[in-house]
Design a protein that fits this description.
Chain lengths: 238, 558, 177
């Protein structure tokens, strides 16, 4: 490894800025207090570029680029917020709200949900996309936690934290497209999982009310994923 | 000690001698299309019959001859004129019972009731480069491939050209990727060759998942060594010693023939270590895909070879820089590789003279739908859609009128009659709102409802979406739902407006090509056939008479 | 002087909670009421929806044939139609039955223990639609006020802005749930 990482200079939302060459647009933007919405990204986990909320415009690029996986480059001109991007972000949220059954009023994550708060911060007052109202199950077999597919947005944070941090690899994805869903082990009930250590990390990182601790009532499922960067740093130190 | 090149010449001479000695040749198409019509039984009957009659004649199973709609197809090449195509007799719809009559006709007149003229525009208007051997050689015999001049380009390159010169030759030919996007092949090779890092990999994308597409399959089934030779040349050019052919498991015949081809090439010293007596090594392996369309996307394909779930990853980094196991990786389509040996054998100038300014060479198409002659064709780039559909394809059926042609599969679009005179090349098709794609070409007539066509492709994209990113996973399902409502007659302008905005959003924000191009069939039908959408919405009427537009949005439960 | 705007409110498939929140404005409601004529409301005795209304607040989703009839009539007769609360905006709690279907609900309510639909009253009960949907699935809605229920403050903002002839911008304050 080189001793001093190169510094890149670029323009972000009209401001001259700089960052280390291995930094992503997202981390550079956050350092400069520029808001870019995210759902699949979580500090301390690998990035997958899946939710597409963090897409930004880069001058000269043919397509919008995900801020969470794109590295800064010398001379980049980045626009994090434009009317076009704002419209796409709202539509992305609408697609999520319409995809499964989100009934905030009776959801355990009410007021502690990243999806719900993004709807407010991105100014989404209603969903014009038709609701799909799929029939989905709830897995209550685990003694401490519950999985409610109705609220899952398939961000795969649970999968990543369980394999990258906990090392249990309990979670996986099954099916494809609109039929995709998260599963534990080989699609067994979570409570019968051989690999789950009941560490609770997946519950803490889940951005919505899809994973929650049992014996909580509505609006009480506070999440705290702040342990992640800490754990990651501790492990990376020699 | 004989060099491998000399050995190839000896084999060529021997094969030609044998063919002379064997007399006439009867080629039975045993590619998938004809095989599904039991052409294997025809082959057996012909074999039995020739034995019985003691005719000096060899019966062989060969790859697709193109006119699949006339299957099972059989050709007869008289001995005296093995290389003179005009003397070849072609037969259609041959049944096992026809064997005695066919064998009896070898010395006399053709069997009239089965004969098709080889002077039909279907044959004469084509230019065969990729398919030059298909239907003419036994794909399971490396000797026959060698006898057509095979592996000479490889030996020449290994012995007389530097890798950089090979790249240069491909660049000069103007070849562009045949897997869909049309990226310049020479440029891609040059990038992988330039990027530092070892090992490097070559991958052949033989996943071919477009509905109705069978171009790559036919090449692999009919002339597998051509693809191998192209891959070995590519490996030489970029400095790879390991390669993979990613093939869908639904193509068992292609798997089998490719397996035989790899074994034979190894036996001949054309694959493995010290290829052709040089210091080049290349190990090629077949990897079978489970048949998900998205696994044809290059980053998903690489993930699948690595043993992960076949889902795409954001690019950059591109495989050329960081591909298989993080190494620089060249990934090309079957047909792209199949073009490489003839380019090196006959020179880039020869190749660049075929086609148009920006689209060189030929393109293989699977012509299907409401057209008389369906099958596999190869035409020079730049031929007009009209020539392809009406001259080669024979036009639409009596009593019907042509409405549109769909190219590019689920990522492409529908082109209306008014645009039939555009040349078929990457840029003209793009301008017309479609794409070249991998070579699907579906003809539609007045009995096709364009909204329903768009809905069909959207259903395909919806069920093939991997589900990783939101716009494609949920967006394709929503667009499918909206298209369904239009066809059912429950949509208003509100739904149409939403559909249009979703098309824009899904195309602009999806992670991989599947989602990015999924709106294309809708966008192109909206562009040219908006009146059909409006008829469904405003008049609750389907002009083609396909959809029943009588549903009601507020269904009562009890 | 006939400068006052006319206001109507009604509830469809909802719990009346949104109306309770409206009343929670307390004395502010009295101030506001100087500026409008309440021409139709579940809490006043008026059977027929008037022909021309400036502002109509609707609580609740569309779940049965009667709702459907009403919403079309109201839309026709209203200048500014407001979806008030999550039920009107998203379907919300009223739409909880959607993944199971209307029959399952009827069976549960009228069918136990036999599990048949024979007991479902034929008269006096509007027919259920197979799915409960938000208002804007059927008619054009001019303003969306999410919340279950929206707070009295939010409703106050909405009403005072509308009465002042402005379209309130709720995009930074409104939230679901
Ligand atoms: C959803 C999707 C499916 C694809 N399927 C195929 C395929 O079946 N075969 C193929 O060669 N390329 C396919 N591609 C294109 C590949 O990603 C890649 O561009 C191509 O293999 C490159 O080869 P080329 O440069 O020779 O065209 C697909 C792309 C997408 C987005
Ligand atoms: S997960 Fe979030 S958005 Fe979904 S219902 Fe619960 S609180 Fe609302
Ligand atoms: S509780 Fe821990 S081990 Fe169990 S699934 Fe969640 S993250 Fe994995
Ligand atoms: S359960 Fe939670 S963390 Fe896991 S994919 Fe669903 S929303 Fe994301
Ligand atoms: S665009 Fe579709 S296929 Fe591609 S990554 Fe996204 S969900 Fe998967
Ligand atoms: S939004 Fe909430 S308070 Fe209002 S009617 Fe619906 S359930 Fe009741
Ligand atoms: S946060 Fe970047 S794509 Fe999800
Ligand atoms: S499959 Fe036999 S001619 Fe094409």
């Amino acid at each position: 490894m080189t001793a001093t990482p190169a510094v890149k200079t670029f323009v972000i939302d009209g401001v001259d800025a700089s960052a280390r060459s291995e930094q992503t647009i997202l981390s550079a933007a956050r350092e400069h207090n520029i808001f870019i919405p995210t759902l699949c990204h979580l500090e301390g986990l690998s990035d997958v570029g899946a939710c597409r909320l963090c897409l930004v415009e880069v001058k000269g690029a043919r397509r919008l680029l995900p801020a969470c996986t794109t590295r800064v480059e010398e001379g980049m001109e980045i626009t994090c917020n434009s009317p076009r991007i704002a419209a796409y972000r709202q539509m992305t949220l609408q697609l999520l709200f319409a995809e499964r059954n989100h009934v905030c009023a009776v959801c355990l994550a009410n007021r502690h949900c990243e999806l719900q708060s993004l709807a407010t911060s991105l100014g989404m007052t209603h969903v014009e996309i038709p609701y799909r109202f799929p029939s989905l199950s709830v897995d209550i077999s685990h003694e401490r936690f519950t999985l409610d597919h109705n609220r899952c947005i398939l961000c795969t944070r649970c999968i990543r934290v369980c394999s990258e941090i906990e090392g249990a690899h309990t979670w996986d994805l099954m099916g494809r497209g609109i039929q995709s869903r998260v599963i534990t082990d080989l699609d067994q009930p979570w409570g019968e999982s051989d690999t789950c250590t009941s560490c609770g990390k997946c519950v803490q990182v889940c951005p919505t009310g899809a994973l929650f601790q049992k014996n909580r009532t509505g609006g009480q499922c506070c999440k705290d994923p702040s342990f992640l960067p800490y754990l990651r740093t501790m492990r990376e130190e020699p | 000690m004989t060099t491998l090149t000399e050995e190839l010449d000896q084999i060529t001479a021997k094969v030609q001698q044998e063919q002379q000695a064997a007399g006439d040749r009867i080629n039975v198409c045993v590619a998938a299309g004809c095989l599904s019509l039991h052409s294997d039984a025809v082959q057996h009957a012909l074999e039995a019959e020739t034995k019985k009659s003691a005719a000096r004649c060899a019966v062989r199973g060969v790859g697709c001859m193109g006119l699949c709609s006339a299957g099972p197809v059989v050709s007869h090449e008289p001995a005296a004129s093995a290389s003179n195509e005009n003397a070849t007799r072609l037969y259609r719809g041959v049944q096992p019972e026809d064997a005695p009559q066919l064998v009896a006709s070898l010395q006399g007149e053709p069997v009239a009731k089965l004969a098709i003229s080889s002077q039909l525009p279907f044959f004469t208007r084509q230019t065969k480069v990729v398919l030059e051997n298909s239907g003419r050689i036994n794909p399971e015999s490396i000797e026959e491939y060698i006898a057509t001049g095979g592996y000479r380009a490889l030996m020449h390159a290994l012995n007389e050209m530097t890798p950089a010169e090979v790249v240069q030759e491909i660049s000069a030919s103007g070849l562009r990727g045949r897997g869909g996007a049309g990226y310049p092949t020479g440029l891609k090779w040059a990038t992988v060759a330039r990027v530092a890092g070892a090992p490097k990999y070559v991958i052949c994308n033989a996943d071919e998942g477009d509905p109705g597409a069978f171009m790559d399959r036919s090449v692999l089934e009919g002339d597998p060594h051509r693809v191998l030779e192209g891959m070995i040349l590519a490996a030489y050019a970029i400095g790879a010693s390991q390669g993979y052919i990613y093939l869908r498991a639904e193509y068992p015949l292609a798997v089998k023939r490719l397996g035989i081809a790899i074994r034979e090439a190894k036996r001949m010293g054309l694959l493995g270590s010290d290829i052709g007596g040089t210091r080049m090594n290349l190990n090629l392996e077949i990897r079978l895909g489970a048949g998900a369309f998205v696994c044809g996307e290059e980053t998903a394909l690489i993930a699948s070879i690595e043993g992960h779930r076949g889902t795409p990853h954001p690019r950059p980094p591109y495989p050329a820089e960081s591909g298989l196991w993080g190494s620089p990786t060249l990934i090309n389509n079957v047909e792209t590789y199949a073009n490489v040996p003839p380019i090196l054998r006959r020179g880039s100038a020869w190749y660049a003279a075929l086609g148009t300014a920006k689209s060189k060479g030929t393109k293989v198409f699977a012509l299907s739908g409401k057209v008389r002659n369906t099958g596999l064709i190869e035409v020079p780039m730049g031929m007009t859609l009209r020539e392809i559909i009406f001259d080669i394809g024979g036009g639409v059926d009596e009593g019907h009128t042509f409405k549109a042609v769909q190219t590019g599969g689920p990522s492409g679009g529908c082109i209306p009659a008014a645009q039939l005179d555009i040349p078929v090349d990457y840029d003209s098709l793009m301008q017309a709102g479609s794409i070249m794609g991998s070579g699907g070409m579906i003809v539609m007539d007045d009995s096709s409802c364009m909204v329903n066509v768009a809905r069909f492709f959207m259903e395909f994209c919806m069920s093939e979406s991997c589900g990783k990113c939101i716009p494609c996973r949920a967006g394709t399902a929503q667009m499918y739902g909206l298209l369904t409502r239009i066809t059912e007659g429950t949509a208003t302008h509100r739904e149409l407006d939403l559909l249009t905005r979703l098309c824009d959003m899904v195309g602009a924000t999806s992670l991989c090509g599947l989602g990015q191009t999924a709106p294309n069939p809708v966008l192109s039908t909206l562009r040219y056939f908006k009146n059909e959408y409006l008829a469904h919405i405003e008049d609750k009427h389907c002009p083609a008479g396909v959809c029943d537009c009588t549903a009601s949005i507020a269904e009562v439960a009890q | 002087m006939n400068e006052k705007k006319t206001l109507a409110t009604t509830w469809l498939d909802g719990c009346s909670g949104c109306h309770m929140s409206l009343l929670d404005m307390d004395e502010r409601l009295i101030d506001l009421s100087q500026q409008f004529d309440l021409v139709y409301c579940p809490l006043v005795d008026q059977k027929i929806f008037p022909p021309h209304v400036d502002i109509t607040l609707i609580e609740g989703a569309i779940g049965n044939e009667e709702d459907l009839e009403k919403i079309h009539l109201i839309r026709e007769r209203t200048r500014i139609l407001v979806s008030l609360g999550d039920c009107a905006v998203t379907g919300n709690v009223s739409a909880l039955r959607n993944p199971f279907g209307a029959d399952a609900v009827l069976r549960r309510v009228y069918g136990e223990p036999t599990g048949t639909l024979a007991q479902v009253p034929k008269i006096g009960l509007p027919k259920l639609l197979s799915r409960v949907r938000p208002l804007h699935d059927y008619v054009h809605v001019d303003l969306f006020v999410p919340g279950c229920p929206p707070s009295a403050d939010t409703i106050y903002t909405v009403l005072s802005e509308l009465l002042a002839g402005r379209m309130p911008d709720l995009s930074s304050v409104a939230h679901f749930g």
